Amino acid sequence: xxxxxxxxxxxxxxxxxxxxxxxxxxxxxxxxxxxxxxxxxxxxxxxxxxxxxxxxxxxxxxxxxxxxxxxxxxxxxxxxxxxxxxxxxxxxxxxxxxxxxxxxxxxxxxxxxxxxxxxxxxxxxxxxxxxxxxxxxxxxxxxxxxxxxxxxxxxxxxxxxxxxxxxxxxxxxxxxxxxxxxxxxxxxxxxxxxxxxxxxxxxxxxxxxxxxxxxxxxxxxxxxxxxxxxxxxxxxxxxxxxxxxxxxxxxxxxx
Length: 255
Ligand code: PEP
Prior knowledge:
By secondary structure, this protein is α/β, with parallel strands linked by helices. Helix content is 43%, strand content 15%. It has a single domain (5-253), classed as Alpha-Beta Barrel (TIM Barrel). The chain is built from 12 helices and 8 strands. The chain has an 8-stranded parallel beta barrel with strand order 1-2-3-4-5-6-7-8, surrounded by 5 helices. Helix 1 (16-33) packs parallel to helix 12 (243-250) and helix 7 packs across helix 9 (183-200). The structure holds phosphoenolpyruvate. Phosphoenolpyruvate binds next to strand 8.
């Protein structure tokens, strides 16, 4: 059975006290309202991870993740954070290839391939983001773009490595814009991704892969998106900063 996952990406928001408060609220609501097998991943700014870990000791539903890491384990890279540092701070997941990293920090397929390697080497789970821009969708090249993002950054992994990944389809035009892919548009791309993974690895591996949707997901549209056959949850930006909204999205998977 594929894992159902809802991950929150806080981006560069919330100081330490506000981060602790939001996380405490999320944990409280999870205890009260979440009744299922779903996994919840919270990705705060990395500097908060150690303190948040202390709050969630013993909670098996929630894990912490980072939003990025450097492609090397250590060295003279002033200002950077390595996968091993994140692991030792209490993170279990790392978002890799978010469109904001690709756009604002010029992260290309080569560097993302290195990041996937180092994240896996350090025993962390990458949440690997792929998705097309509005121009690419309008030009009808979105499937080619997604296939190329997969091939160039992730298909060098062998099956035993690739099966550890979580994928996130995030159409760039839907991130933080209030525009959401329709459930049909999202399902179409998720099915395409699964087919490409089956072609490159195996149908068994593809069937076990969790593929999340991200892009203006909220409590109103989550149920319909997550009911699609190939959508296994969401990567949530804005709505993960409000505990109630985040929990209402997670509750879609309540049994
Ligand atoms: C994201 O940043 O990954 C994201 C999906 O953001 P939002 O939900 O705000 O569109």
